[in-house]
């Protein structure tokens, strides 16, 4: 089997979410680069990536350029192709657009491999289970006031979610930050796993001060409390708090994860499939985390991550950020607070032709 061609598109979709009710997003949009990779045996693989902002066109061009290097290759040799692409473009990497452009190609290759062998990607990677806990994300962001949070939390519970993530980091005082957590905990009760994302907006002292004061509310984790590359600062916070510290979504490639693990900076390893460089690189980080006895969680694109998280024994929960779900004919199902691995070969996904036509801009 040989790769014979590739087609990329830029899609622009509304920035809404079915997890959010009563919020006017205006004309806000999200942009994605999709990939369909063809072979001489008629097996097609699919992938997706996104960057956002004015660099989306550059990201598409990068994907196109890397795809040219894949033409004629045997798609079953995923590791060899990954190494080839990284070496060819190493002067521009390992992070940024290179990693984001490598990821959809790697994802598509695994999709082809699964289809060719009649197995799910989850099965190819280990097949540990057929579903994973998932948490509602993107519905409890820092722009929404506490009155909204008090209503939104119970609504997510009524939708079947047993885990959900809120945000802090924008309030002018520690007291008001803590109030957000109190309101959320009281609205959903003690039986719901409640996470909180800071998106690097605190310094170390803030993280420790506020983190200690929210400990009575039993957060499942605090995420990205300080700058992602402040490994020693993260370690100070992790040592000071009983609440687990999660981080990793801002890292490109696998090396930064080694630094975080060696410095014991975190308790939970968050791996972003699109930023780490695809499935091939993702599973290497998951293995490193297992060697350090740490659990793994995912970052966005749950339709892909369900396969990866279900394949490993240290997979904790999948972030259900539904930005991309409208792009597929049959997105993965959510049952009783868990996301289910599609059982069709490969990723078990197919782009919706209607969505492609509706949202394509180039």
The tally of strands reads 13
Query: Helicity level, as a percent range?
Result: 25-40%
- When the domains are counted, the total is 2
Poorly predicted spans? none
User: Assembly type of the shown chains?
Assistant: single chain
Full CATH superfamily name of the largest domain: Enolase-like C-terminal domain
Q: Main β-sheet: number of strands, strand sense, barrel status?
A: 8 strands, parallel, barrel
Q: Helical region count? A: 13
Class from secondary-structure proportions: alpha/beta
Radius of gyration: 20 Å
CATH architecture of the largest domain: Alpha-Beta Barrel
Integer average pLDDT: 97
What is the CATH top level name of the largest domain? Alpha Beta
Main sheet: strand order: 4-5-6-7-8-9-10-11
Instruction: Give the overall form.
Output: globular
Distance between the termini: 29 Å
Approximately what portion of the residues adopt beta-strand conformation? 15-25%
Return the CATH topology of the largest domain.
Answer: TIM Barrel
